[in-house]
Amino acid sequence: DTGSAAAIPVNPNYDIAYVTPVSIGTPPQTLHLDFDTGSSDLWVFSSHLPASQIRGQTIYVPANSSTAKLLADHTWSITYGDGSASRGNVYVDNFTVGGLTVENQAVQCALQVSTSFTRESNIDGLVGLGFSTLNTVVPKSQLTFFDNAKPHMDEPVFTADLKWKSEGTYDFGFIDEKKYTGKITYVPVNTSPGYWTFTSSGYAVGSGNFSATSIVGIADTGTSLVYLPPSILTAYYRQVEGATSSRTYGGYVFPCNSKLPSFTFGIGEARITIPSSYISYAPVTAGSSTCFGGLQSSSSLGINIWGDVALKAAFVVFHGGNPPTIGWAKK
Ligand SMILES: O=C(Cc1ccccc1)Nn1cnc2ccccc21
Question: Comparing C-alpha atoms, which of 224, 244, 248 is closest to residue 236?
C-alpha cells in the first residue's frame, strides 16, 4: 500500500504548522491533523470536549461511527516541550490518510486541551509519527499510524516535502523521485529517545566557512522553528544588523528589514541550505517592524530541534527499517 496527502500551512502568512486531511470512521469524518514526528500520540478534538475549549475546530464524534470501539479503561495525557497539553480517552477506528487505511487505529479523543490548542482553530488534532515508545496511553501504550501501516506498505517509509508558505506533501510507503534533486544522504537514527534523533555534521552561516562539528538533534515536523546551541546562534546573528536576544519576546529578534544570511547544515558530506527568507520568520506582533528569527537557542530545551524552518528546505525520508535511518535531499 501507499498513500499521499497534502501538508497545508495553517496560516497564510507564517508557517506555524501544517495540517493534513484524514478520514476517521464510518461514514468517514474528515479532520485536518498536524503530522508530528516529534511525538507519538494520535489525538483529536472530540465530542467529549467542553464547548468552551473548541473554537472552530472539527471534532471527531465516535458515536457517529459504526466502526468506532471504545478502548475501555484506557486514558492518555501529554505535555509538549512548549508547555501545551491535552488528555482524554481512547477509541479504535478506521483511519485513512491519502488513500492508505489502517483499521483499528488508536484514536485518542481529547476531553481537555490547553489554550494554545483551543486558539489554533485550524488544527483538529495531531498524528504522532515518532517512535511508539513515546505513546502516552495507559495501561497499554498504542502504536502510531506509521507502525500500524508499515507491514502493509510497499516500503517502510514516509517522506516529508514541506514548503515555505505553500502546500507540500507527506507520502507513505514510497519515495517520489520527482520531489528531490541529486541524491538522498541517509544517516543513522538513535531511536532510544523516541524521536527521529540524528547527528548533523556541522554548519555554515551564509557564504562563510563550513564548521565541522557534530550536532545531535531531532527532525521534528511538529515544531515550527530550529533550535540550536547558543554558540551557533551567536555566529549567525552577529551577521544580522540590529539583532538581539530579547527577554521580552523570548528569543532572537531583529529589524524586519535587516539583511539575513542563509544557514547551511551538514548531513554527512551533503549540505542543506536554509534560505534567508525562511529565517525571517514573523513580526513579533502583527504589523511590528521587529521580526522573530527562525533560528533560536536550544539552551533551555536540552535538545536541538530541526523544525519546519529546516525541514522545508529539504526532502526528508523517515525510513522505518531495521535500524531506522533518516535521509535528506535538496529539492
Ligand atoms: O514541544 C516541542 C518542542 C518545543 C518547541 C518549542 C519550544 C520548546 C519545545 N515541539 N512539539 C512537537 N510536537 C508538538 C505539538 C504541540 C506543541 C509543540 C510540539
Answer: 244
Give yes or no: 124 in active site. Answer: no
Q: Ligand 1: residues whose CB is within 6 Å?
A: 36, 38-39, 80-82, 84, 220, 222-223, 301, 305
Q: Which ligand 1 atom lies nearest to the CA of residue 34?
A: 15
Distance 209 CA to ligand 1 centre (A): 31
* Residue 305, C-beta contacts closer than 8 angstroms, at least 6 positions apart: 38, 217, 218, 220, 223, 225, 226, 227, 298
Return the best residue to mutate from 19, 144, 223 for the ligand 1 pocket (most ligand atoms within 8 A of CB): 223
How close is the Cα of 38 to the center of ligand 1, in Å? 7
34, 161, 171, 220: which is the annotated catalytic residue?
Answer: 220
Task: State how far the Cα of 123 lies from the Cα of 32, in Å rounded to an integer.
Answer: 6
* Distance from Cα 256 to the centre of ligand 1, integer Å: 25
Q: What does the alpha-carbon distance between residue 89 and residue 71 come to, in Å, rounded to a whole number?
A: 8
**3-class secondary structure, 172:** strand
List the pLDDT tens digit at each of the 331 positions of the chain: 999 999 999 999 999 999 999 999 999 999 999 999 999 999 999 999 999 999 999 999 999 999 999 999 999 999 999 999 999 999 999 999 999 999 999 999 999 999 999 999 999 999 999 999 999 999 999 999 999 999 999 999 999 999 999 999 999 999 999 999 999 999 999 999 999 999 999 999 999 999 999 999 999 999 999 999 999 999 999 999 999 999 999 999 999 999 999 999 999 999 999 999 999 999 999 999 999 999 999 999 999 999 999 999 999 999 999 999 999 999 9
* DSSP string over 29-70: EEEEEEEETT---EEE-BTTS-GGG-SS---B-GGG-TT-EE
Look up the ipTM and state it. Answer: 0.93
Active site residue 220: yes
